[in-house]
Request: fold
Amino acid sequence: MLKIRIKDFIDKQIENLEEFDYEIQMDENHIYVIFNIILNKKVDKEITFKVLDDILYLHSTTYGWKPVEKGIVNKYFWIEILAN
Reply:
C-alpha cells in the first residue's frame, strides 16, 4: 500500500517526463526511493519518505521533514531531486 502511494506521488510529479528511473525500498519506518536516472543523467540519489498520521512526508537535507501531498509543498521534492 505505501509503495503504491509513493509510486503514485512520484509518477504524478514526473508526469510527461520520461527521463527518470527509480526503485522503491522499504524498512519498518521509512520508504526509500533510489533514483538511477534523473532527467537523462545517471545519478545515485536516495530520497526518504515516511507516513505519519496518514500524511506523507519527504526528508529534505536542507529543510527536514516536509509534507508533500497538498498544495505546492511538492516543491521540496523538486528541490531535493535537483540538488547536487
